[in-house]
């Protein structure tokens, strides 16, 4: 994998749970010896040296004598390939290698800004390192067991292409750390990596999904080799860092890492850089050996099977599915649709900002016209100033003066603040006074919180019919004043939502779209349950369809002549819960069909059941027979159904009566009564949860539907708060993790389907329980039937047919994602 300093930041996102250590740090135990087997030919100029201070780290000083091992000899005498003749000799060795060998590979990449873009279509591979184990001879005279280092920079440009036949040969198994990145940058060079033998990042996640929480350093190569192999590394900055030069010409305290091409070209760094890049291949190979051994010790579905079997049969192919999807991307209408929607969103934001500030000015005077809605400090002072800080026990300030840059203050505010704006200062003093409301929630530091959920609680929705007012309504005495307060605070909420929409989707999608108008998001297996996450952009975080004011999904479109298939599991997690617990009531409800949450409402509320029994409302209705003759339960008793729906999912997530009471705005006693009512009809669920928690307390772990492990050591600890969280995770993981298992097998089956390939359909995205495919309009119906079959029958070794059938709904006839929903 590339070792640019930027790449470390990329791995912080691709391989982390919350934070992650840098991947590209040098082995502390490396020793400094000449690199044999190739001569460096100067390439581009070293103009960068005028911008950086010069510092050549002494390689020998990086060594720790007590850590010398055979790793050093593998790195110190690399087999370097810079010519076609050298490549021919090495290729003969590789193409005649034992197919049972694993070859660890790693790239170094330049010209890519990973904070801004992904690896699909971006970056240039400067070199490739390969390690084939301690007994392999590449044939150029270096010691057996050395590492292969293939130069692809400057006059060696194109040498990588000599290895294309081997890289694309399925017979030879290559292993990687963060395969997705390397596969994409190699594809950029015209090489489609085949013979995938494993991704040590995914293997490490399978072995322990909670490594950071359980005392480990995360899933970077640095952290894993340190933890599992005792191969410790120093930070990259310490090895290659150069001090920034201050204005007086002396070196400063800030240190930068030169660009990757400089490290590879400059004689001052080149020797160490080759050893550095070779280490990643060696570390990946050794880590793979260790993880295979660890996974083989973990039982899977029987004593004769283990988690390495699970990885080899399922997750290994799934990694290829994910990289296939990333490479394909999905088409977005960036130039026309998204650009026009962004204009409208900014216009709406301006109107909402005007409404909020004008109301604030009525309350606290002209300074209200300058309140910054993005400043949590200003909002907290304005809304809750004077409230007690829960940590300090002191009242917060109810009047504060903020220095605001003149260009950030709107013109109408400057005119209104005449006495403050006469000066030619760059800043204007804005005095924010509190309206004196009581704080609803508090930050970790004890101060009043002004998060989106708090603002929504204050505002409510004054535009519903009838209006649903928030707490601000009564605080301002109700009537017109209360209504105006809720409207203004509703606008404040809208500003936050619009800002999020603009940043996460409207601008980012336009920026990320490539020359074919396709967006290639990064799909990652970095959640503890095994659910996918996505970045650049985070498509998992799209607003609910009914709240998608700007119809973002409409921008995701099929190419001309194609349609989209969008297929979604219905109530997947609840169906899995019913199957795992063998709950008769739930199984009967699903077998009966119709609205599951309405049936739950009947069980929970006697008056709802009575209304159905008396024929006053209908449980469901087939609209092909026209309009219903009586009101539907979901309409007549919408509030009760919402509570039933919340409770159904809350049970799956292990939510307590206290949490439910906050969701519903009722007392904990009332919430507990509703919980008991739910469990009365579903005793099997209560028993299963009790047994699952007991298992976690005894063994410190839980397992998913397919037998993956999640370590929960806190369940065995002394801290009751941590025990409670671990117990909730123990019952949530089998359900959410089970849904992830089902989705993975379904996606594997879809991607493998010869029928879909013949019909011209490709899998492009998976969001939650939904998949999106693209293909020719004329084969859409036949392809849709195949997709439904793959999803409803994903069964494979380790996943038996569930007691409740999996239900999939979807569409095939639409041109964009929004219409398909």
Topology:
Layout lengths: L4 H10 L11 E2 L42 H7 L2 E3 L2 H12 L6 E9 L13 E8 L16 E4 L12 H4 L5 E4 L2 H10 L7 E4 H8 L13 H9 L3 E2 L1 H5 L1 E4 L5 E6 L3 H6 L1 H30 L10 H22 L1 E2 L2 H31 L11 H9 L14 E7 L5 H6 L1 H4 L5 E7 L18 H8 E2 L6 E2 L1 H5 L3 H34 L5 E2 L2 E3 L8 E3 L26 E8 L2 H10 L2 H9 L3 H9 L1 H8 L19 H4 L1 H16 L3 H8 L3 H14 L1 H17 L1 E3 L5 E3 L8 H33 L1 H6 L2 E6 L2 E7 L3 H13 L15 E7 L2 H4 L1
Parallel strand pairs: 2-5, 3-6, 6-7
Antiparallel strand pairs: 1-8, 3-4, 4-5, 9-10, 11-16, 12-13, 14-15, 17-18, 19-23, 19-24, 20-21, 22-23
Question: Would you write up a description of this structure?
Answer:
The chain has 821 residues and is α+β, with helices and mostly antiparallel strands. It folds into 3 domains: 5-297, Ribonuclease H-like superfamily/Ribonuclease H (Nucleotidyltransferase, domain 5), CATH 3.30.420; 335-511, no CATH class; 578-737, DNA polymerase, domain 1 (Orthogonal Bundle), CATH 1.10.150. Helix content is 45%, strand content 13%. The chain has a 6-stranded mixed sheet. Strands 22-23-19-24 form a 4-stranded antiparallel sheet. Helix 5 (179-188) packs parallel to helix 11 (307-328). It is globular, with a radius of gyration of 30 Å. The two termini are 38 Å apart. It comes from Fragilariopsis cylindrus CCMP1102. InterPro entries: 3'-5'_exonuclease_dom, DNA-dir_DNA_pol_A_palm_dom, DNA/RNA_pol_sf, DNA_polymerase_A, RNaseH-like_sf, RNaseH_sf. This is DNA/RNA polymerase. GO terms for molecular function: 3'-5' exonuclease activity; DNA binding; DNA-directed DNA polymerase activity.
């Amino acid at each position: 994998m590339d070792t640019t300093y930027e790449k470390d930041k990329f791995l912080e996102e691709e391989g982390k749970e919350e934070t992650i250590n840098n991947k590209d740090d040098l082995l502390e135990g490396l020793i400094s010896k000449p690199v044999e087997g190739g001569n460096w030919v100067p390439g581009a100029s070293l103009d960068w040296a005028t911008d950086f201070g010069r510092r050549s780290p002494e390689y020998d000083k990086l060594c720790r004598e007590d850590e010398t091992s055979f790793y050093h000899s593998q790195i110190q005498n690399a087999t370097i390939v810079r010519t076609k003749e050298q490549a021919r000799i090495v290729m003969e060795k590789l193409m005649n290698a034992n197919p049972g060998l694993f070859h660890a590979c790693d790239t170094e990449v330049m010209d890519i800004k990973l904070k801004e873009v992904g690896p699909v279509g971006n970056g240039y591979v400067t070199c490739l390192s390969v390690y084939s184990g301690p007994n392999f001879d590449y044939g150029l005279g270096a010691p057996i067991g050395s590492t292969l280092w293939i130069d692809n920079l400057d006059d060696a440009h194109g040498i990588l292409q000599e290895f294309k036949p081997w890289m694309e040969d399925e017979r030879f198994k290559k292993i990687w750390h963060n395969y997705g990145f390397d596969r994409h940058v190699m594809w950029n060079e015209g090489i489609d990596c085949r013979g995938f033998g494993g991704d040590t990042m995914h293997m490490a996640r399978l072995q322990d999904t909670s490594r950071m929480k359980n005392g480990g350093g995360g899933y970077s190569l640095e952290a894993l080799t340190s933890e599992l192999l005792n191969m410790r590394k120093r930070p990259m900055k310490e090895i290659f860092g150069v001090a920034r030069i201050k204005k007086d010409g002396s070196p400063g305290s800030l240190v930068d890492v030169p660009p990757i091409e400089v490290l590879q070209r400059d004689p001052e760094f080149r020797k160490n850089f080759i050893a550095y890049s070779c280490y990643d291949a060696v570390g990946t190979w050794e880590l793979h050996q260790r993880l295979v051994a660890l996974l083989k010790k973990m039982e899977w579905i029987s004593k004769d099977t283990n988690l390495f079997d699970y990885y080899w049969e399922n997750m290994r192919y799934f990694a290829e599915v994910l990289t296939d999807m990333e490479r394909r991307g999905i088409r977005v209408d960036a130039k026309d649709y998204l650009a026009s929607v962004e204009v409208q969103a900014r216009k709406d934001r301006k109107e909402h900002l005007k409404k909020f500030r004008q109301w604030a000015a009525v309350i606290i005077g002209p300074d209200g016209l300058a309140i910054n809605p993005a400043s949590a400090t200003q909002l907290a002072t304005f809304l809750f100033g004077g409230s007690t800080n829960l940590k300090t026990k002191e009242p917060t300030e109810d009047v504060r003066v903020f220095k605001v840059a003149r260009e950030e203050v709107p013109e109408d505010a400057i005119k209104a603040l005449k006495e403050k704006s006469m000066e030619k200062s760059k800043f204007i003093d804005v005095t924010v006074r509190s309206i004196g409301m009581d704080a609803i929630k508090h930050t970790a530091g004890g101060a009043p919180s002004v998060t989106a959920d708090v603002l929504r609680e204050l505002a409510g929705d004054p535009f519903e019919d009838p209006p649903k007012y928030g707490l601000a309504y009564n605080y301002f005495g109700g009537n017109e004043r209360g209504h105006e307060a809720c409207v203004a605070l509703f606008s404040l909420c809208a500003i936050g939502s619009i800002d999020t929409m603009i940043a996460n989707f409207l601008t980012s999608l336009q920026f990320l779209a490539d020359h074919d108008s396709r967006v290639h998001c990064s799909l990652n297996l970095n959640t503890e349950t095994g659910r996918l996450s996505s970045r650049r952009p985070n498509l998992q975080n799209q607003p609910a369809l009914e709240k998608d004011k700007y119809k973002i999904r409409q921008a995701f479109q099929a190419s001309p002549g194609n349609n989209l298939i969008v297929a979604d599991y219905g109530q997947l997690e609840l169906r899995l819960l019913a199957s795992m617990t063998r709950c008769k009531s739930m199984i009967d409800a699903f077998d009966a069909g119709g609205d599951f949450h309405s049936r739950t409402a009947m069980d929970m509320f006697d008056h709802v059941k009575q209304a159905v029994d008396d024929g006053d409302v209908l449980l469901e209705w087939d609209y092909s027979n026209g309009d219903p003759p009586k009101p539907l339960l979901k309409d007549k008793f919408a509030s009760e159904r919402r509570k039933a729906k919340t409770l159904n999912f809350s049970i799956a997530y292990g939510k307590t009566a206290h949490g439910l009471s906050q969701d519903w705005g009722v007392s904990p006693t009332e919430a507990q009564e509703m919980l008991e009512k739910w469990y009365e009809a579903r005793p099997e669920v209560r028993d299963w949860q009790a047994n699952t928690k007991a298992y976690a307390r005894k063994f410190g772990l839980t397992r998913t539907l397919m037998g993956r492990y999640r370590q929960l050591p806190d369940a065995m600890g002394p801290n009751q708060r941590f025990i409670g969280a671990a117990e909730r995770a123990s019952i949530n993981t089998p359900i959410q993790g089970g849904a992830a298992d089902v989705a993975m097998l379904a996606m594997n089956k879809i991607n493998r389907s010869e029928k879909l390939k013949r019909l011209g359909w490709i899998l492009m995205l998976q969001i939650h329980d939904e998949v999106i495919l693209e293909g020719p309009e004329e084969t859409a119906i036949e392809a849709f039937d195949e997709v439904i079959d793959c999803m409803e029958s994903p069964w494979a070794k380790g996943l038996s047919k569930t007691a409740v059938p999996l239900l999939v709904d979807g569409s095939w006839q639409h041109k964009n994602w929004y219409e398909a929903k």
